[in-house]
Automatic annotation (TrEMBL):
Compositional bias segments (type: Low complexity): 12-26
Pfam families reported for this sequence: SWIB (PF02201)
Protein name per Swiss-Prot or TrEMBL: SWIB/MDM2 domain-containing protein
Region called Disordered, residue ranges: 1-35
Segments of skewed composition (Basic and acidic residues): 1-10
DM2 domain location: 28-104
Species this chain originates from: Arboricoccus pini
Coiled coil: none
Upper taxonomic lineage: Bacteria, Pseudomonadati, Pseudomonadota, Alphaproteobacteria, Geminicoccales
Length: 104
């Protein structure tokens, strides 16, 4: 009776990072966008990529303790965030929808 040998396969080799041509456009998430005056009060006036805007808004939320203690997914807006969100509270999933309205 023939026995099967269990050979472990080597992990796939890592491929080198693909370099973009010098004149390549950044993708949509990396494209710097101008925040509205309301959003600029939180993240600053300089153009930022969407990811940077979200990070800065989360820094602001945590610094000012604006997460609902009973449900950390909910953000309780202060006066500055009310101008951006248009309401007193929103979920972290809704937040990106409101931020997109304030970026051009």
């Amino acid at each position: 009776m023939a026995t099967k040998t269990t050979e472990k396969k080597a992990p796939p080799a890592k491929t080198a990072a693909v370099k973009k041509p010098a004149g390549a456009k950044p993708n949509a998430l990396q494209q710097p966008l101008q925040p509205s005056p309301e959003l600029a009060e939180i993240v600053g006036k300089a153009p930022l990529a969407r990811g940077e805007v979200v990070s800065k808004v989360w820094e602001y939320i945590k610094k000012h303790d604006l997460q609902n203690p009973a449900d950390k997914r909910e953000i309780l807006a202060d006066d500055k965030l009310k101008k951006v969100f248009g309401k007193d509270k929103c979920t972290m999933f809704e937040m990106n929808k409101f931020l997109a309205q304030h970026l051009k």
